[in-house]
Amino acid sequence: MSAEIRTLEPQVVWNKFADLNAVPRPSKKEEQVIQFMVDFGKGLQLETFTDAVGNIIIRKPATAGMEDRKCVTLQSHVDMVHQKNNSTVFDFEKQGIEMFVDGDWVKAKGTTLGADNGMGVAAIMALLESTTIPHPPLEALFTIDEETGMTGAMGLEAGVLKGEILLNLDTEEDDEIDIGCAGGIDVTATRSYNEKALPRAVQAFEITVKGLKGGHSGMDIHRGLGNANKIMNRLLYHASVNCQVRIARIDGGSLRNAIPRESTAILVVYNNQVAAFEKGIQGLRDTITAELKTVEPNLEITLSATKAPKKVMGLGSQDKLLKAVYGAHNGVYAMSTSIDGLVETSNNIARVIVKEGKIKIGCLTRSSVNSAKMDLADALKATFELGGLDVSFDGDYPGWNPNPDSAILKVLEAKYESLFNEKPRVVACHAGLECGILGTHYPTMDMISFGPTIRGAHSPDERVQISSVQKFWKFLCAILKDSPKK
Questions:
Q1: What is the mean pLDDT of the chain?
Q2: Quick check: helix, strand or coil at residue 247?
Q3: pLDDT in tens, 357-404
Q4: Which residues contact residue 5 at a Cβ distance below 8 angstroms, ignoring those fewer than 6 apart?
Q5: Catalytic annotation, pick one of 79, 145, 147, 173
Q6: DSSP state, 310?
Q7: Is 139 a catalytic residue?
Q8: pTM over 0.85
Q9: CA nearest 396: which of 377, 416, 417?
Q10: Is 79 a catalytic residue?
Q11: What are the backbone angles phi and psi of residue 156, rounded to the nearest 5°?
Q12: Which is the catalytic residue, given 30, 139, 146, 186?
């Protein structure tokens, strides 16, 4: 890890971020980071404990003269999305993130950076450790597994927290104050299929889709980025229409909350149709790259001969699969009618895996309107069921309804304007924030979300702006210094 990260200002925050990023913390495998946070809190001799699901709570008394202020809960999640480039050799369960400075940005070497939400965690750690920053009674809530189910927030029981105000530090534009977010639900389609013996007189090929930007399946869904699973399915569908092809394997995408960047497929083509097949793939490759050249300049679609597989899909199963994925909606489904420019409802076809007689397709459907979320989920269910797949819904979590009359919002708006001589943008986002879930457990808690500028979250292009972290830290300290009285 580059030592230059620790010299950045504010050093108290960047040093904590460097400490945190030395600890492996992929979602659902947070044992090491949980222990790290517990050791941190107890090392400061602060009240520190974990709840039944593994969330960490650390409490710090108010600084002298601020005992009459409302208790503020500072909240961020300790897990991170684990994504890497295919060419990067990295073990997220054993290695710390390798960071470097690039101008005004901190980036990682071929992996996600973990600024989402590590910068929020680091800022809270710096406040807990400080002996000079004035603040009200503080309660730090470090949740687990935000990225793959929000099970930490969902498992937090009512009555555990004492704060009257919650500052969620998980927003990714430093001029925004977030007052609402989308809810989500996992849509999973599965089925078995009969494998058939490899036909005679065939040539095996591997198709690869790579070089896509990827990104956050909520915050980036409106950008029209390429989805590797949809691109691959388009290639395979048209190949199957024009030639006799038999699919042996498909492996595309990874996490539900990441727009899929890569996909590979193994298939066979009858020898007498190889030339037509190659010409068709090359033509469609040129068409797709032309369509996406503005937003995906590094897209690569390659076709190469490969070792023949032992078995292939049956034609009936193959036909239904390709039609189902082709018909399944991906991307923005509806824009908000109440907040200009906000994506209301969307779907990300995040994972497609076909091998050894099993099909599994994983989607994440989001919406700020619960009925619209379920409407799209039902539409996907119907589409996949027409393809003979079984569909299940899991991980349903609520959105966070905006409250423009929030008392803490007024405080933050005034403070931002006084510090930076401009008004902040008060927004709702299409990402999933834990405020919606926490609000069901603590309905009277006044909640707000803000943070530093982060780009490319959930992809190896993730980066955080150094000057923005300085702005964010100044804002956070100022809010706590002038926090509301009881």
A1: 96
A2: strand
A3: 999 999 999 999 999 999 999 999 999 999 999 999 998 999 998 888
A4: 14, 17, 18, 99, 100, 101, 106
A5: 79
A6: S
A7: no
A8: no
A9: 377
A10: yes
A11: -70, 125
A12: 146
